[in-house]
């Protein structure tokens, strides 16, 4: 028979839960305090599930949870909590609780279903489900204990309609984790929409989030729905939330508090049921101290706090991440020896997974087609795992002088042709001359862009920064001017 333990100081709740689950055929034990809990002989009584209230008169529920998991680690636990203590309930999940439920119990059917699902769930099938969802969004579970605990926590809280704040260094995979949360939630069939708060101006971000009415500002020729409206039943991911202006922060706070907002230029109130996941690579606590971020907004966002460890703290997962990059990119046809993998594991990867991915792309881009297996001697790292400027063996080195020579040769040929045309005494086709000038612009621009993309390992954002042009301008030059990047040996990444 299935044994259930109820720990709650409110005797009415204990009696109610006892009747509810006894009628379903379970054997129920009810205790009302920490002292009563300590009196249980856990050597003689084995519990399959426990429902523990977080607040008891003589002890807190987290302490009881720790003690229970130590005595009977296979016992599945549900934490009972009020809304004000949801953050503590999430801490309980990190300590081994399987789930939490809010009091008072407004939906008895949901409560029964939650307990039944918990009792009938299989650890193996749950783990497999997590792996399947992670694989679907490109999240590598790996072997690292912190990362595994993080994913377990994310999976458990995903089904709750609470806001999530993800912190982590640039390149650790915050958006991938947010997609995992969406896929593991009850909203997985609805929209997942992401926006980078630091990449859009304040006025455009306001319109992007809340929408606008026709004529609200110059260029607003048609009414437009905002992301809070479009993703009303789904998940809205706000990346780099620390970059949002104070004005936007105030408006976000109102949406989170009331679930209400107005389009730009409208007086009508709209409602949203969006589940918000925010991410930042900054320390928001420090941003609050520096008056850059609103403290009240922080607490609204920080209902569930997830911190992704940097790659240097999960080096045991580097072989899996490399294997993922090699398997899922059909254009990459290289491999690494065991000693090369060891060297890559010793490097700190300050750019995290994004840097690792770009590194592999670069190695593949520059690799000699006759050598596709890289050893430790072929990698640009010293013995202590520090990146060096030493040329990599088995990699085509782009000769800068040769590139300059090619550009110089082209310019000299162009000048000679133009001067020859200028010295002609007969009729001159000016349209043809002007076309040659445009061709010069194209070739010179191409040379500068390709050289910069090579220096930045194909990173368009960094290339645009170095060229002192906008990403929009770079995209125009790459797309409209039809630069043949592949022919020049450079693969660009966004």
UniProtKB/TrEMBL annotation:
Pfam families: AAA_lid_14 (PF25601), HTH_8 (PF02954), Response_reg (PF00072), Sigma54_activat (PF00158). The keyword rRNA-binding does not apply. Keywords: ATP-binding, DNA-binding, Nucleotide-binding, Phosphoprotein, Transcription, Transcription regulation. The keyword Secreted does not apply. The modification 4-aspartylphosphate is found at residue 53. InterPro entries: AAA+_ATPase (IPR003593), AAA_lid_NorR (IPR058031), CheY-like_superfamily (IPR011006), HTH_Fis (IPR002197), P-loop_NTPase (IPR027417), Sig_transdc_resp-reg_receiver (IPR001789), Sigma_54_int (IPR002078), Sigma_54_int_dom_ATP-bd_1 (IPR025662). Residues 3-118 form the Response regulatory domain. Residues 140-365 form the Sigma-54 factor interaction domain. PANTHER family: SIGMA L-DEPENDENT TRANSCRIPTIONAL REGULATOR YPLP-RELATED (PTHR32071:SF119), TRANSCRIPTIONAL REGULATORY PROTEIN (PTHR32071). This is Sigma-54 dependent transcriptional regulator.
